[in-house]
Amino acid sequence: MSKVLVIDxxxxxxxxxxxxxxxxxxxxxxxxxxxxxxxxxxLKEARPDAPVQPLRIKIDPGAKTTGIAVVNDSTGExxxxxxxxxxxxxxxxxxxxxxxxxxxxxxxxxxxxQARFDNRKRPEGWLPPSLMSRVxxxxxxxxxxxxFAPITAISQELVRFDTQRLQNPDIQGALYxxxxxAGYETREYLLEKFGRKCAYCDKQDVPLQIEHIHPRAKGxxxxxxxxxxxxxxxxxxxxxxxxxxxxxxxPERLKKIEAQAQKPLADTAAVNATRFKLLKVLRxxxxxxxxxxxxxxxxxxxxxxxxxxxxxxxxxxxxxxxxKLIIKxxxxxxxxxxxxxxxxSCRTDKxxxxxxxxxxxxxxxxxxxxxxxxxxxKTGKKVGTYVGKVAIxxxxxxxxxxxxxLGQGITHKFCKRIHAKDGYSYAV
Length: 428
Fold this sequence. Notes:
The chain has helices spanning 19-27, 88-108, 129-148, 163-167, 184-193, 232-238, 243-246, 251-261, 266-283, 294-303, 310-315; strands at residues 4-7, 13-17, 31-35, 40-43, 55-60, 65-71, 78-85, 151-157, 208-212, 227-231, 289-292, 333-337, 346-348, 354-357, 363-364, 367-368, 372-377, 384-391, 397-402, 405-411, 415-419, 424-427. By secondary structure, it is α+β, with helices and mostly antiparallel strands. It folds into 4 domains: 4-43; 55-87 and 128-161 and 268-337, Nucleotidyltransferase, domain 5 (2-Layer Sandwich); 170-261, DNA Binding (I), subunit A (Orthogonal Bundle), CATH 1.10.30; 359-421, Roll (SH3 type barrels), CATH 2.30.30. The strands form 6 sheets. The chain has a 7-stranded mixed beta sheet. A 5-stranded antiparallel beta sheet has the order 20-19-18-17-21, with no helix packed on it. A 4-stranded mixed beta sheet has the order 2-1-4-3, with helices on both faces. A hairpin with a 6-residue loop joins β17 (372-377) and β18 (384-391). The protein is globular and about 75 Å long.
């Protein structure tokens, strides 16, 4: 069962407790809700210093989603789990759009613009904002959990996909230095790329074989773009046929496989580029940091016959993984990075021309856009309970985005903030 995080009267982290115990403390007035996400309570009465059990944060970094788990090494119990969805690719698109608009404006002016390449220098270890956002997201949540749980150690999966060998298996000599994950990389990359199922019949939970789209017997290469996954039955059935002949009666599947095969290595490049930067950030917390390979994570998970999810992968990272992970009843918190809005004072159309003004004042009636609020409306046409993110207006008539849709025209008098805007959205 997922535990509830607890801090004492001086905001020091205590052992996480069972949800039933937390409800009893709240009902009896001995504790109050300190934070909604992650759900944390604060005790109202001082307790004598009691020993707390050390916990470990375990992280499985990904290009789009990172798994996070807080594990008790001695008991194997997972006290907290989360899946953190990044917005790196959205940031990249925004930067690309901004660059295009700026270049368009410059080209519309006929005056000479002096080149400014020589006076720009990037600091050592610089990474683009789209990659650094992943590092900052993980750093933010590690620091939050350290504040609310007795964390004494960190584990990080330091995976490395060898993109050179994926693209050119025959590379050798001075062009290539052998990596520690050679042999693991191709299979694991294909499993991720094709969703861990047969590309030809969509079978899952069966042994999958690496299959050449254009057969080797007919001149096909070992490049990663010419490989896919197939069950044994489909692999034998296809034999040395060309994929266009094999799937001539399934044009949609053929189109899908060809598109997936040519998919760029952007995800693997993002993980490779940020892995050591993240390690440096984690070590800066002052806690001991353990690193483990992707192969070890997979071994730990399969040995315990656990399903493949981001947070379970995180719980299985490193040599410190207990022989028996207790995950029964654990409900992960789904966290999505949405940013803090835009600093633009004037919005533009798709051509980059200004078309609307943004008010300078961001807070009205004590609320700001992005706060999570609860509104209980007892009168009028909007009767009901609304819980979700709020979009404010200076008139005091707010919109609330809930699971069931958008609640429009809710007056601020009925709203109560339950979680302040922090750049993330949440779901359980």
